[in-house]
Amino acid sequence: MSAPIDPTATSAWSELTSHKDGFAPDLREWFETDPGRVDRFSFGLGDLHVDLSKNLVTDDILASLVRLAEQTGVAERYAAMLAGEHINTTEDRAVLHTALRRPAGATPALVVDGQNIDDDVQEVLGRIDAFAEGVRSGEWKGVTGKKVTHIVNIGIGGSDLGPVMIYEALKPYADAGIEARFVSNIDPTDMAQKTADLDPETTLFIVASKTFTTLETLTNARLARDWLWAELSKRGSIGDDEASRTDAVAHHFIAVSTALDKVEAFGIDPKNAFGFWDWVGGRYSVDSAIGTSLAIALGPDVFRELLAGFHTVDEHVRTQPLAENVPVLMGLLNVWYSTFLGAQSHAVLPYAQQLHRFAAYLQQLTMESNGKSVRWDGTPVTTDTGEVFWGEPGTNGQHAFYQLIHQGTRLIPADFIAFANPAYPLADGGRDVHALFLANFLAQTKALAFGKTAEEVEAEGTTGALVAARTFAGNRPTTSIFAPALTPNVLGQLIALYEHITFTQGVIWGINSFDQWGVELGKQLAQQIAPAIEGDAEATATQDASTQALLAYYHSHRTN
Ligand code: F6P
User: Fold this and answer.
1) Which of 76, 301, 544, 554 has the fewest CB atoms found within 10 Å of its own CB?
2) Backbone angles phi, psi at 140, to 5 degrees
């Protein structure tokens, strides 16, 4: 694997540093004097219309950013990823989530490390389709012969955030009378509340874990199994003997994992398990068997459409020149803001209530991928990396944190995502509510870009100290992503867009975006501290003073 290219040593970096020195963006002026700006800075990406014109870049800056992508080898590294090179260096793995959405029969076949990846993917997809159809039609039955009405996905991180985000986004497509729920947190509240009103006879649990070792997921899976046995036996639906319990698990538990031996050890029949591969990172896995809950609740056709959307964007990235490559351009803009202009965070603001978990999903995708201080060869990074991604759907965010974006002292680039057509076209006294909603999206991006001058404030009759308070500086950068409707295909496109934005930034910074060693220390320490919180004096004595004091507080306040 070639060494990362230090971006700060490139000529493009020097150009960008010169652009930054004394940089005084003026979107009002740029829009007034340049009638072609919007056209030049607007792009089509599948069904997405992406308007970059309200970003703080000139043509010269964008050209330098594109040169930065060229000089740091973004296209070459993407090609290496698609070809199955082991670009995940610290785990010595290929990175092939893009293979999960290649259409059946794609040519030439993708063969990596001697394995026909396309065949493997299609085989599992076919099994998922058949299983999902069986559950949806009622052919698959619970232990007492009833059709499944509820599925509960038990997973965390990439084995939860993608499925729950997509389920929430595409709920209008749930047409088989099956409700999906998602349990992730090891806080027992999560399991208790999500199962409280469930009927064990009609509930199917999906234990989703790439490694099948994750503490939260395995603990919750055992809680779910205990709940199932207890509730079924309370009703007299099963006996308390081993065979009855095994039979109950066989009818009410399936698993999704790369570790099928561990699935079997848990007691789930391997024929009720769906595999995937170590070349799929957890946060890139919603389009693998990790999406089984979606195939059941929304249907296999919806799941396939989602995959088709991902593939559209993969193809765009593969075939478009860097200067017209939308995910690359958006990744470059993020580098411009975070590394050159000092932005520490990035807001993602969907004008779609259905995307209310989108920011949470993106947090893992972006921050677990690029929150790193070393490069893929183990040397320190040469720039700041990894912004904080956050957001809430509009218009809720407008009444909460937009104040800071409009008038605060920090630069917060924001992506606005909107859809021309609503899932639920409601009217308020004859007025189309979705149109009103979209007026807010347009108004916010306009206000952020162009602000309101002191003269304009005064012209409205405001005087004195209030003038400054009511002035908006403008030049707050936004990207507008508009699509006809939030369909499965469009959602796939959106997710893939952000995957490739993340990848672009990672390459420029020299980061391996596909490992996550930063989550390990806390996991290890939790295992060490668990005996101390359970009262083991020896384990307590080895803790630092603060942890010991917190343990003492716990022991003196725990009452139940
Ligand atoms: O938080 C670390 C992590 O490894 C994530 O990358 C992953 O998505 C999550 O835990 C869950 O892991 P698994 O699917 O193996 O249970």
Assistant:
1) 544
2) -80, 130
What integer pLDDT is reported at residue 113 of this predicted model?
86
Cα–Cα dist 316/492, whole Å: 13
Confirm if 8 and 383 have CB atoms less than 8 A apart.
Answer: yes
Report CA(362)–ligand 1 centroid distance (Å).
15
In order of 82, 84, 515, 525, 556, the CA distances from 87 in angstroms are 10, 8, 10, 29, 50
**Strand ranges across the sheet with 48-51:** 42-45, 48-51, 478-483, 414-419, 345-351, 388-390
> How far away, in angstroms, is 158 Cα from ligand 1 center?
6
65, 60, 72: which is closest to 6 by C-alpha? 72
The answer to whether 220 and 186 have CB atoms below 8 angstroms apart is yes
Where are the alpha helices (H) located in 83-154, listed in sequence order?
117-137
The residues pairing with 150 across neighbouring beta strands, listed in sequence order, are 179, 203
DSSP 146: P
ipTM score assigned to the predicted complex:
0.98
Ligand 1 contacts (CB < 6 A) are 156-159, 209-211, 214, 217, 282-283, 368, 516, 519
- Mark whether 368 is an active-site residue: yes
Atom of ligand 1 nearest to the CA of 516: 6
Using one digit for the tens of pLDDT, what is the confidence trace for 408-453? 999 999 999 999 999 999 999 999 999 999 999 999 999 999 999 9
Q: Which residues of 347-379 are buried (b: 16+ CB within 10 A; e: fewer)?
A: bbbbbbbbbbbbbbbbbbbbbbbbebeebbeee
Give the pair of three-digit tokens for residue 206. Answer: 């999906």
Closest among 497, 455, 478 to 312, alpha carbons compared: 497
pLDDT digits (tens, 9 = 90+) for 46-60: 999 999 999 999 999
Q: Residue 489's beta-bridge partner residues?
A: none
Please count the other Cβ atoms lying within 10 Å of the Cβ belonging to residue 267. Answer: 15
> In whole angstroms, what is the distance from residue 223 CA to residue 87 CA?
38
Give residue-wise pLDDT tens across range 481-515. 999 999 999 999 999 999 999 999 999 999 999 99
Nearest CA to ligand 1 atom 9: 157
Which of 489, 345, 490 is closest to 417 using CA atoms?
Answer: 490
The reported pLDDT for the residue numbered 1 is 65
Taking the centre of ligand 1 as the mean of its atom positions, its distance from the CA of residue 273, in whole angstroms, is 18
Q: Is cis: bond before 395, omega within 30 of 0?
A: yes
pLDDT higher than 90, residue 136: yes
Distance CA 89, CA 528 (A): 29
End-to-end Cα separation, the chain, in angstroms: 55
CA angle (183 as vertex; 179, 186 as ends), nearest 5? 170
475 is written with which tokens?
Answer: 């030049």
